[in-house]
Each structure stands twice: as C-alpha cells, then as structure tokens.
Automatic annotation (TrEMBL):
GO terms for cellular component: chromatin; nucleus. The keyword Nucleus applies. It holds the Pfam family JmjN. Keywords: Methyltransferase, Nucleus, Transferase. It comes from the Eukaryota. Residues 93-134 form the JmjN domain. The keyword Nucleus applies. This is Histone lysine demethylase, putative. It comes from Babesia ovata. One of its GO terms (molecular function) is histone H3K4me/H3K4me2/H3K4me3 demethylase activity.
Length: 490
C-alpha cells in the first residue's frame, strides 16, 4: 500500500502538469442505434435543398422629388427659423433731388452720385419740378401676354408659367381690385400691409394664389406698333430721359451699338398688379439700369450692392431646387426673403418707388421686389465708362455660363475709336480695358504652337494718343504670357 504522502505528491504533480499543458478534448457524440439494426449507428445525410440568398429590394427614386427634398434641406440650413424683419426698418437707399443742371444728362447725374451707388447698389432720383415722362404706349388699347406667378413656389424657382392668351389693362385692373378686396378688405391697402402679406405667402410655401404680370414688353416691336404713341415734334422726342434715347445719351458706351437689343438699348415696359414679383437678378452683362415709374401703385425694391454679390450668389445656388448655377443666378425665378439674407450677413437696402420717380441700379447690384397694385414702369440699361471693369468681369463670368447680349470687346473698341466723345479719365479706363483684352488674346494665342496667326489691331484714330507706346505698355503687362511681335498696327 502506498502511503498518504506519496498519494498526495502524485496528485499534486498531476495537477501541475495539467495546468502547464492544457489540452482541449471535444466530447465524442454517442451514435444512437438505428431502429431495427441493433448497435449500428445512424448515418446523417446533408439536405439537398438549395438555400437562396434573401432578395434585396431596389427603391426607384423620383429625381424631381429628391431634388425638391434636398433643396428644402439646404434652405433649412440657410434660413434662421424664428427670425423676423420689420421690412419698413430696412435702410432706404439715398434719395436724390436732381437740380436742373444735373438733370440735363443722365450720365453726369450717375457719375456724380456713383459713390452712393457703389455703397447702396441703387439710388432714387426725384426729377426737377414740372417734368414728367411720357408713356410710350396707349395702354388702354394694347393687348399683351402675361406671366402667371404662383407665390408659394417662388422660393424653389417653379412659380412661373406662360399662358398663350391675350390680356389687356382693363382686365388686369379688375383682377387687381378683386384680389385686394379679397385679401385686405379694401381697395387701397398700405405698402406695409401688402409687404407683410407678400412675404408671408412666399415664406409659407403653400396655397394656390396666382397673380399675373406683364413683364419685358418690347415697346418698339411690331407687336405693339399700333399702340405706340406718336411723340414726333414734341419735347419727348428729344428728351434725354425718354427711355428710347437714354441708353444713347452722351457718355454711354451703348450709344455706339447699332443693333437694337430689347431691354438693353431699347426699353421694356412692365404692367403689374398687386403681389406680382421680380426675383433676384443682375442686369445683362452687369449693366446699370434706369427704371421710371409712369403710373399706378408703388413698386417696392430690395437691393444688394455689388460688394456683397459673391455672398448672395452662394446663397442663391443653395436655395433653389435646381442644380444648375445658370438657373440659380440668371433665370430671374428665385425669390429669397430679406430676412434670410440679413440672417446670412448680407446687407439689404429698400426702395419704395412712387409715380414719376426714377431708380438707378448700379452694375452687378442684385435687386428684387414686388408691386403693391396695378402700375406701369419702363426700363432700359445704361453703360457709362465706369462700367468697364465690371463689364470685363461679366465677360469672364459669362464665358462658360451663358450667352452675352452684346460683345464686351465691341463696346471697348467703339469707345476707343470715338475717343473725342470722352474725357481723359474715361479714355484711360478704356485703354486699360483694351490692354486687358489684348493681353488675354496674346496669352491664348501663345498656347497654340501652330499655326501662329498674326494679330492686327486697327485703330482709326492714330492722333488720339501714342498708339505705339500704348501697345508696348500693353505687351509689357502681358510679357510673361506673350511676345510683343504678336501684333501689327495698321
């Protein structure tokens, strides 16, 4: 018999070996005997049934609905909920009471107050006592097409349609009156009441209110030939403030444009009713604009000066349901409340334009607004020489985005060739713009190894300035990109 000490020693040794070298030994499953076969184990066979992967359901999205939803999300990020602006508290643009001397030439008046226009984006002009513009159309007899505007859709750029039937002023005036009685309970609501109602409907984004606006009516087109008022032999025929003459007044580069471009050097007419809109936009080619209020209810404007344009353009791109930059910036279909702009640190200035008042809008200033009732306005563009630097920017911006209505190069060249019509400062600006175009042309030509096409610059007025010196300076400005031998003077 072994002693108790030896047994204890053997047990301890066995435990230590077990702890130092653990070994996993799976338990063997006991085979159950098959029925009727004694102790023989049962053979397990794998099922032959095919197991399929679960199907994945593809959800087909509607592009338009997704686009609207994404636009709503982007707008919610931009908008500051709960913010409210008292629109009457917005800073008004300066009002200029023109003197008889200032009123003789629109360009002179424009140039004198350009420091205010640069700051505010626009100014309001009160004409000299006794002057009143002549309406070019007999609005009582004319027929015109209208745009239908759905206020609840102005924020997403889908609030416009163009019915193909004719309207007249009597019908529009009657609908304007019916709308005001329905919404305000009176025939002549205040600007404050209409303004609050307008932005309330735009922000709400729901409802079925549709208003009609006769916009961009080409005054001197064959369509309205029978409605034109003959001003031959009257003071209006030669008046510089006649919109037909204004774009061609002394000092404007548009006076050398032989082509008639409606809305630019030929006026457009606008007939509005209560709550009709013009959405955020700049003028074509970033021109300046002149708008005269002939008759009717006030027109309310909102203006963002050119110095804050980049910030506003970024906001407009994010506010629309459309992904196209061109649509967001140039379609004139997106209306953003001033509250949203102010919440995004974009300054907004306000104008209430009454009868017989003129609004100057500066180049590249964004503007929008609405009509408080039945009214008529006329507008055209203006291009003083001070427009050239911003005009060059429009030339660059439009290159890959949209078509231009008139060549920037042709305006510069026509101004240089008619140098006698301008002062020394204006001529210096034109030379600088021409030098920029030449340098750019040299740079583009130098990128083409073959063929090297000779560039000819024809200036019909060699006595205007030292052309050779000017060309050499232009080439020096672009010497890193082009060679002076690329041009020939003729």
């Amino acid at each position: 018999m072994e002693s108790a000490g030896e047994a204890l020693s053997r047990t301890t040794s066995s435990a230590s070996e077990s702890s130092s070298e653990p070994e996993y030994r799976p338990k063997k499953a006991k085979a159950s005997p098959a029925k009727g076969t004694g102790d023989s184990p049962q053979v397990c066979r794998r099922s032959t049934r095919v197991t399929r992967r679960p199907s994945f359901f593809k959800v087909v999205h509607e592009t338009r609905a997704d686009r609207d939803m994404m636009a709503a999300i982007k707008r919610s990020r931009i908008e500051t909920h709960g913010s409210h602006t008292e629109y009457q508290s917005l800073v008004e643009v300066p009002t200029i009471y023109a003197t008889a001397e200032e009123f003789k030439n629109p360009i002179t008046l424009w140039t004198k107050y350009s420091h205010l226009g640069d700051k505010y984006g626009a100014v309001k002009i009160i004409p000299v006592a006794g002057w009143r513009g002549t309406c070019p159309l007999d609005t009582g007899s004319m027929k015109f097409k209208v745009r239908e505007q759905r206020l609840e859709n102005l924020g997403n750029g889908k609030g416009f349609s163009h019915p193909n039937y004719d309207w007249d002023c009597e019908r529009m005036k009657a609908e304007d009156l019916a709308l005001k009685l329905d919404l305000f309970g009176c025939e002549d609501p205040t600007v404050k009441e209409v303004e609050a109602m307008y932005w309330g409907l735009v922000k709400k984004g729901s409802g079925q209110l549709v208003v009609k606006y006769a916009a961009d009516l080409n005054v001197y087109s064959p369509e309205f030939e029978d409605s034109l008022i003959d001003v031959t032999g009257t003071a209006a025929e030669t008046d510089v403030w006649n919109m037909r003459n204004l774009s061609k007044c002394p000092g404007s580069l548009l006076r050398y444009c032989d082509q008639v471009i409606p809305g630019v050097n030929s006026p457009w007419f606008y007939i509005g009713m209560c709550l009709t809109s013009f959405c955020w936009h700049t003028e074509d080619n970033y021109f300046g604009a002149v708008n005269y209020h002939h008759w009717g209810a006030p027109k309310v404007w909102y203006v963002v000066p050119a110095r804050k344009t980049s910030r506003l353009e970024k906001l407009l791109k994010n506010y629309s349901a459309h992904e196209s930059e061109e649509f967001a910036l140039y379609s004139l279909r997106i209306q953003v409340p001033p509250d949203v702009l102010i919440a995004n640190e974009i300054p907004v200035y306000r104008i209430v334009q009454q009868e017989n008042e003129i609004v100057f809008v500066w180049p590249r200033a964004y503007h929008s607004g609405f009509n408080t009732g039945f009214n008529g306005n006329e507008a055209c563009n203006i291009a003083p020489v001070s427009w050239l630097p911003i005009g060059y920017k429009s030339y660059i911006d439009y290159k890959f985005r949209r078509k231009t209505c008139i060549s920037f190069y042709s305006l510069v060249m026509s101004g240089v060739c008619n140098y006698r019509d301008f002062g020394a400062m204006d001529l210096a600006r034109m030379i600088h713009s021409l030098a920029e175009l030449i340098c750019q042309e040299f740079a583009l030509r130098s990128c083409v190894p073959y063929p090297q096409v000779q560039m000819y610059l024809h200036l019909d007025s060699p006595d205007a300035f030292d052309v050779q010196k000017f060309m050499n300076e232009a080439c020096l400005q672009g010497k890193m990109r082009a060679k002076p031998s690329c041009y020939t003077l003729v």
